[in-house]
Amino acid sequence: MRAVFKSMAMIAAVSGVAACAGGADAPSVSTAGMPGALESIHAAAFTKDAAVFWVSSNGCTRKEDLIPIVSIKGADAVITLRRLDEDTCKEPLVDGVELKWSFEELGLAPGSPVSVNNPYQLPQT
């Protein structure tokens, strides 16, 4: 299933369309004043009640190292993933690491329309 999500995100990144609920383009929200640094993501996928991201890792990235910031634009939630702590380990993971937040953790109702405000970084081949 992970490969399917990664393929969807890669197709979306190449075509310039965000991988999001409903298939609409991702709204852009300002990141000014947000903590940490904007994180490039390898992939993103959503279920009815969870958001899953794949991000780069040098071997030590944990969920606590990143923060999802939810902004509301119109009727949609826009998630901006920000890195709070740098991963200084020396064993890069080729596929990155999978991090998951429930919609409850994000303050969203199950089935909420969601998009991503982060740039996509395709894996190096």
Structural notes for this entry:
By secondary structure, this protein is α+β, with helices and mostly antiparallel strands. The longest helix has 14 residues, at 2-15. The strands form two sheets. Strands 1, 4, 5 and 7 form a four-stranded mixed β-sheet that branches. The radius of gyration is 14 Å and the shape is globular. It has two helices and seven strands. It starts with a helix and ends in a 9-residue tail after the last strand.
What is the radius of gyration? 14 Å
Report the mean per-residue pLDDT as an integer: 82
User: End-to-end span in angstroms?
Assistant: 21 Å
Q: What would you call the quaternary organization?
A: single chain
Strand and helix map with partners:
Layout: H1 2-15, E1 37-38, E2 41-46, E3 50-55, E4 66-73, E5 76-83, E6 97-102, H2 103-106, E7 114-116
Parallel strand pairs: 5-7
Antiparallel strand pairs: 1-5, 2-3, 3-6, 4-5
Task: Summarize, please.
The chain has 125 residues and is an alpha+beta fold. It is built from two helices and seven strands.
Keywords:
125 residues, alpha+beta, four-stranded mixed beta sheet, three-stranded antiparallel beta sheet, 2 helices, 14% helix, globular, disordered N terminus
